[in-house]
Write a structure and sequence with these properties.
By secondary structure, the protein is mainly α. The chain has 38 helices and 7 strands. Helices cover 60% and strands 5% of the residues. Strands 2-3-4-1-5 form a 5-stranded parallel sheet. The chain has a two-stranded antiparallel ribbon with strand order 6-7.
Amino acid sequence: MQRGTGLGGAGRSGRHLGAVPAEPAARRASVGLDVPIETKLHAPNPRAEWMERPELTGHLTRSSVKLVLVDAPAGFGKTTVVAQWRSSALESRSFAWVSLDRGDDDPARLWWYIVSALQRACPQIGVEALLKELRAQAPEVTGTVLPVLANELAALPAPVVLVLDDYHVIKERSCHEQVEFLLRHLPPSAQIVLITRVDPPLPLARLRAAGEMIELRARELRFAPEEAAALVQAAAGVELSQADLADLMERTEGWPAGVYLAALSLRGHLSPQAFVREFTGDNRFIVDFLADEVLGRQPGEVQQFLARTSILSRFCAPLCDAVTGSANAAEIIETLERENLFLVPLDDNRRWYRYHHLFAQLLRSQLAVTEPDSVRALHQRASAWYQRSGSAEEAIGHALTAEDIAGAVEEIARCWYSYVDTGRTATVRGWMRSLGDARIAAHPLAAHCAAFAAALTGDRETVRRWLPVIEAGRHDGPLPDGIQSLRSSAALLRGVFGFDGLRAMHESAATAADLEGDPASPWYAAARAALGFSLYLSGDPEAGAGPLEQAVQSESSIPLIRMFALSAMTLVAVELGRVSKAQDFAQAARLLGSRSDFRTSPQSGVARIAMGAVHAERGRLPEARAELEPVLESRRRLFGISPWPTLELLLLLARVRLDLGDRSGAAELAAEARDVLAALPDGIAALQARLAELDRRIAGRSRVVSLAEPLTEREVAVLRLLGGSLSLREIGQELYVSANTVKTHTQAIYRKLGVSTRHDAVERGKQLGL
């Protein structure tokens, strides 16, 4: 049934490290976020068959509460009443409308559509920054998007109503929590309408008690006898007697869908009275009864078309032709729309449609009876059409329904990173849940996708579960996402994330670098960034500089990998005493990390670690702490992503805290670093040495008070650089001061430490924990 009927919708050296090349152009595959599906943002247009319900629409027009909840079972006219309210002459507010589907059960996609709808309703809202944030790998919805959105709504010159139709399809807990957050902070000029079949998990009792919500439920939406009579007259051209009307109302209990289906069946019926008398039985039998009365009156070709296209949640003529094998879908759709046969247009151009939900269920039941063996083939054809059209999500959904596991896995493997790269890792993991562990275990390509999605969300145990499947599997040629082989996939997982320890991380990264030899592949840079970072951690920064430079200079590098490589290059440059070059790398990494695509990504914290390292090396300790401490809190929440950047952060921040006089804070971080190393003890000699040196400094820190005159932060920075091979002039260049200034600082250091040579100053500084 269609909404147009009044029914509901459904060591240092001077080694040159190279210049920082310009950032390559972004290469982001579209996954349905860059261009929203316009049909989802259109409310149903008024139709002549709609029964006017002025009491309900007037009540809604006068409402100014935060939440309007329209909550009733299917077929109670929920969507139609809200659409009538929207187009009422008494209503002057703008409406932003989103028709939800199961694909919106993902925070990034849900809020993408909400923001897009609000932009169309209120063009003055500034949404570009919000849309960029929602394209991030891990968008910060509650902390960033919603506060900005609430402020934008508060600044609107005129009120707006946001309608979320079919809200019952939203199951993800975080989506509900985000809607609740927006409700709490919603300005008086905005109102949210939820159209749903079930109570949403929101604080309804609190909203009700506070007078911040009004509700329309089945009791309010049931037809009164006069409304049912008017609907039968409009839809069937039949005027029922009072007795027949009372009989019909008793049998349908005012259920609008039942009334409308009865009216359609009454079209051309010789005896309305006899029909009403036959309209009996439990409601669960009504659809079966009307299937004969309504579908049975259609030509065989139309019946077959309706049944076969009922597998589609939305459709257009080319899609229907591809699925049914017909060549006249456009003509059939035009006839169905003209005859008001349960067809709902989804856009103003009459290109995309859907069936009313109840009617679609009826048609699918009919298909299961008449052509049970064709259902799988129909879904496979739909999947193939969507794949050709570039709609990966629909293609995967139909392939899964068709039990075409190989086809679904192939498509997932082709597009998984595009979804991850735009903040929709939850969608990828949802596909994995749909496949199930048994199918993933039987398909190494699926295990590959599942392992990477798990790694990016810090699920270490899931990665370890699927690695043996990947390593034992076979696949001819490169994988659909461009990785050279399953062996390379496993090497990248171990080499990039380092879950199995530093030695395995280094060996795996080296293997991946050998296998990923094509500079045009983004995985070329990923392997080399992992290799360079593992060498740095192993105490060989000079060896790590080479592969890191290759990763940074790769024009095909994924932006996130490029940012990581720049950050690792910063640490290498600091270790080699090239602080000016390190700052160049850190600034380039920060520029990438500040993009909304990455700003809230857990991995993006490495750019701040890099900048913190530069600040620390230059003696700018408060600035270093300001960079590093927020990253530590973030990585503690998602520690499982990779332990090694977190360990680097712990060691660096401990040193900064110690230099700032926070000995206990430094000791706390050193203990945390010790726990990390204890859990992954293989190949960590260099890191253990760094931790031991830090422990010695913490233990000897109290001796600093023996200095009659403590060193300043700038003098500490100069003292650190005196330990390298740089001349006083070069130290001045690193610190952006003159050679005379460095000479003055050096003389002050000698005086305060009671020494007369550079070597003695460095040794004394080490003894004092400086």
